[in-house]
Design a protein that fits this description.
alpha+beta; BirA Bifunctional Protein, domain 2; 2 domains; 7-stranded mixed β-sheet; 6 helices; binds biotinyl-5-AMP
């Protein structure tokens, strides 16, 4: 695997990309608050589908529900992609994102990640990547969907106390620096292929389900103030989790609303 300069080079990335649409317009920032904010602004200014925002560092990187996404500068993939899926495709965008990250990691590094429902990519029990989707829907039409992906490439988890025990990175797994450009190139390629497949009506949900490590386990899900425990029996076509509760009833848990907790931590 090639070494690279510490900073990303949008010109070099552009030259390396083999995609048709995704990443053809690149907005690059050495430092920004959040690539999601930049992407939102770009949407308002009419950015075309497939525009990507990348950064070397975020000062206010975010996860879902106002949580923080943390990284030291120049260590990670911090990416937002501007998309315009249909309303029907929108719930499956998260599946496409997870599958693209998984395939990218597998192809470039040989590591074998799994998906923890709903949005984490895990290697050896630790989180290496998370994503979120911020969409705008009006009159049953998706105006825009911004997919944000944070992937730990050369991050040393022990340098960030909040995630030292729960996170990992490609470098930590491989014991060698990995080129972020190489990962981005592969990620955008895999994403475009899977997004095209989604748009052509292929059953992305079936593919995604096969890689979900959560199924068949006893889990705890947190929805706002409510906590549910049960057996993760299946997922439906929208990506919702079907949880079999101890009283035998089946609870449908919407992916957008919950966090899956480690039973050990309760
Ligand atoms: C996510 O949220 O996992 C979505 C993360 C998306 C981040 C990207 S970076 C580019 C784009 N711009 C942004 O501002 N955001 C997106 P969630 O499921 O809520 O998980 C958040 C939790 O993950 C935090 O509360 C921490 O516990 C943990 N976490 C934070 N930083 C991490 C990291 N670098 N690696 C692993 N876990 C982390």
């Amino acid at each position: 695997m090639k070494q690279q300069n510490r900073r990303l080079s949008p010109a070099y990335l552009h030259q390396e990309l083999r995609t048709k649409v995704i990443g053809h317009n690149i907005l690059y920032y050495p430092v920004t608050s959040s690539t999601m904010d930049v992407a939102k602004q770009a949407v308002q200014e009419g950015a075309e589908e497939g525009t990507i925002v990348i950064a070397d560092h975020q000062t206010a990187g975010r996860g879902r529900f106002g949580r923080k996404w943390l990284e030291p500068p120049d260590s990670s993939i911090l990416l937002s992609i501007i998309l315009r899926p249909t309303l029907e495709e929108l719930p499956r965008l998260s599946m496409v994102a997870s599958l693209a990250v998984m395939r990218c990691i597998e192809k470039v590094t040989g590591l074998k990640p799994v998906i923890k429902w709903p949005n984490d990519i895990i290697i050896e029990g630790k989180k290496i990547c998370g994503h979120l989707i911020e969409s705008e829907v009006a009159n049953e039409t998706v105006q825009s969907a911004i997919l944000g992906i944070g992937l730990n490439v050369n991050l040393d988890p022990s340098s960030i106390p909040e995630i030292a025990e729960t996170a990992t990175s490609l470098k930590e797994m491989l014991k060698v620096e990995v080129s972020r450009t190489e990962i981005l190139r592969a990620l955008l390629g895999e994403f475009e292929e899977l997004y095209d497949a989604l748009r052509q009506g292929e059953p992305i949900d079936k593919l995604w389900r096969r890689h979900l490590e959560t199924l068949g386990q006893q889990v705890t899900v947190k929805c706002g103030d409510e906590v549910h425990q049960g057996y993760a029996e299946s997922v439906d076509e929208q990506g919702n989790l079907l949880l079999r509760r101890p009283d035998g009833s089946l609870l449908t848990v919407t992916a957008g609303d919950v966090t899956l907790q480690d039973l050990k931590k309760g």
